[in-house]
Amino acid sequence: MTDLETTTIPRRSEGGLRDHVGPGSERVVVITGATGKLGPTVAAAFAEAGDRVAVLARDGAEVDALAASLPGGPGRHLGFTADLLSADDAIGAARAVRERLGPPAVLLHLAGGYAGGSGIADTDPAQLQDLIDVNVWTTFFAIRAFIADIRAAQDGRIITVSSVAGFMQTGTYSAAKAWATTFTASLAGELAGTGVTATALCPGFVRTEFHQRMGLRGQAAPSWAWLDADRLVADCLRDVARGRAVSIPSLRYRAATAALRHLPLRLNQAIGRRGRRSR
Ligand SMILES: NC(=O)c1ccc[n+]([C@@H]2O[C@H](COP(=O)([O-])OP(=O)(O)OC[C@H]3O[C@@H](n4cnc5c(N)ncnc54)[C@H](OP(=O)(O)O)[C@@H]3O)[C@@H](O)[C@H]2O)c1
């Protein structure tokens, strides 16, 4: 086992998580999609590191409940509602975060998700629209709304959550996540030299209910393929601290992704077809 594989989430007392995301105290961290399956673990990691977390999603009761449950006590973290498919909503949320918590230094865009599973010819146009909306348009509107504050912050960070599916040929979800990865890596290039970084986090299977909705049960993916959410956060933040534009948590997924990139396209397509059939 390598030292990368034994990484654990650095706690505040170890000063580690702060080292991973950069210096600063009372940093405001915006987490979109925080009320989803990955969000609460991620939000708790930042709160434990001493950051103030702006929890953002569409459901007001859920964002308030999550903010109140985070380490640090009442009022330290706040919930904000916005539909990130609306440019105005996103800009309004950015203004509200600035006024109520202070200008954010970190945007962690978790809003996104899976829809589909059928072949391209059988894909329902409405489902494709939802997939593009949640993975493409929310990413664009969230970054556009928060980037001015993050650029003004010392060591500003933008992290979007994509997927290793973006390196595969498994249909509409892969295509949407390929967009998210390329978009974020392009932003990283535009920000080079400014002190602000952008990173696309590309996880594989993470142990949540997410894969039950995909129709993937335990037997559809071997046990080695599953990542813990805690481990995901630690690996991602280490890559963010290194200024990497793309973060692929765990050695096994980095190796698999490197292999996929160098495989002939036909072989990659065959793996994608097999993956779809196994769902
Ligand atoms: N979970 C995994 O195993 C896994 C693996 C690889 C990649 N990923 C990626 O990681 C990200 C998070 O996954 P997850 O499983 O936590 O997703 P999830 O459970 O479906 O949660 C999605 C979150 O986004 C919010 N959201 C959706 N549409 C929104 C909109 N228009 N405006 C504002 N907020 C919106 C939802 O809250 P509201 O509905 O209240 O707005 C919710 O908080 C996604 O991009 C997913 O593709 C996940």
Describe, in plain words, how this protein is organized in 3D.
Helices cover 47% and strands 13% of the residues. It is built from ten helices and nine strands. The chain has helices at residues 16-21, 39-48, 60-69, 87-100, 125-152, 172-191, 210-213, 229-241, 251-262, 265-277; strands spanning 28-32, 52-57, 78-81, 106-109, 157-161, 197-201, 205-206, 226-227, 246-247. The chain is globular. The two termini are 30 Å apart. NADP nicotinamide-adenine-dinucleotide phosphate binds next to helix 5 and strand 7.
Short description:
With 279 residues, this protein is α/β, with parallel strands linked by helices. The chain has a single domain, classed as Rossmann fold, CATH 3.40.50. The chain has 10 helices and 9 strands.
Backbone shape: globular
Bound molecules: NADP nicotinamide-adenine-dinucleotide phosphate
Strand content: 5-15%
Rounded to the nearest angstrom, the radius of gyration is: 18 Å
Q: Could you say which structural class the secondary elements and strand pairing correspond to?
A: alpha/beta
Major beta sheet summary = 7 strands, parallel
Task: Indicate the CATH architecture.
Answer: 3-Layer(aba) Sandwich
What count of helical segments does DSSP give? 10
Give, in spatial order, the strands making up the sheet with the most strands.
3-2-1-4-5-6-9
Q: How many E-type strands?
A: 9
Order of helices and strands: HEHEHEHEHEHEEHEHEHH
Q: Regarding CATH, which class? A: Alpha Beta
Give the integer mean of the pLDDT values: 85
CATH fold-type name: Rossmann fold
Poorly predicted runs of 5 or more residues? 1-18
Q: How much helix, percentage-wise, in residues? A: 40-55%
Find the CATH superfamily: NAD(P)-binding Rossmann-like Domain
**What is the CA-CA span between the terminal residues?**
30 Å
- Number of domain modules: 1
